[in-house]
Specification:
single chain, alpha+beta, Fumarylacetoacetate hydrolase, domain 2, six-stranded mixed sheet, five-stranded mixed sheet, 5 helices, binds magnesium ion
Length: about 220
């Protein structure tokens, strides 16, 4: 993939690999145990949505949560990547939301089922424009924030991550090959909560980028 294609990673159709429970305060607020290894799940490329289009609440959920996260855009393919060279595989970053149907996720957890319906629906991955690597020289030291209808809900530093970005890249690449254009969502800080139709979400990486999304609702066409 050329650099310009990486810069439009959301159109490329590669994997979206998500890390859960990577911030202790968020694990606590959902009464989850602290992980001893990264918790991984996937979203399909159809989850992408860009500013100008709405986030759609799935017709089967009444409790859609926002999770603001730092996304890492992969620039070079690799398997079994050592932590020491992991950052060589990073092309850049993106501000991301891991939209989560929390009611459905709770049901899946109770039944021991995968989280696909809760995490992988269309528009479950709003993303900003591509941020070249040079614009975030220290990805372990950026501040993420999210507001709903102008009220601050989430604010946290990536310094609070349990597993670092080099560790996550190395860990994931021992499970599945990382490819150019893949996106890794690195987990959310505390403060997740519900959004409803007509709400406006604003999110940002302090001093780097921000983005705005409206919330709509997907009709049940069955
Ligand atoms: C419990 C979750 O939904 C985990 C997750 O996605 C996170 O960011 O943490
Ligand atoms: Mg998440």
């Amino acid at each position: 993939m050329s650099k310009s294609n990486v810069a439009r990673f959301w159109e490329w159709g590669r994997k979206i690999i998500c890390v859960g429970r990577n911030y202790a305060e968020h694990a606590k607020e959902l009464k989850n145990e602290l992980p001893t290894e990264p918790v991984l799940f996937l979203k399909p490329p159809t989850a992408y949505v860009k500013e100008g289009s709405p986030i759609l609440v799935p017709h089967y959920s009444t409790n859609l949560h926002h999770e603001v996260e730092l996304g890492v855009v992969v620039g070079k393919e690799g398997r079994d990547i050592p932590q020491t060279s992991a950052m060589d595989h990073v092309a850049g970053y993106a501000l991301c939301l891991d939209m989560t149907a929390r009611d459905v996720q709770d049901q899946c957890k109770a039944k021991g089922l995968p989280w696909t319906l809760a995490k992988a629906f269309d528009t479950s991955c709003p993303v900003s424009d591509f941020i070249p690597k040079e614009r975030i020289p220290d990805p372990a030291g950026v501040e993420l924030w999210l507001r709903v209808n102008s009220a601050t809900r989430q604010r946290g530093s990536t310094a609070q991550m349990i597993f670092s970005i080099p560790f996550l890249i190395s860990y994931i690449s021992r499970v599945m090959a990382l490819e150019e254009g893949d996106l890794i969502l690195t987990g959310t800080p505390k403060g997740v909560g519900a959004v409803y139709e007509h709400d406006e979400l604003q999110a940002g990486i302090e001093g780097v980028i921000n983005m705005t999304f409206k919330v709509g609702r997907r009709a049940d066409k069955s």
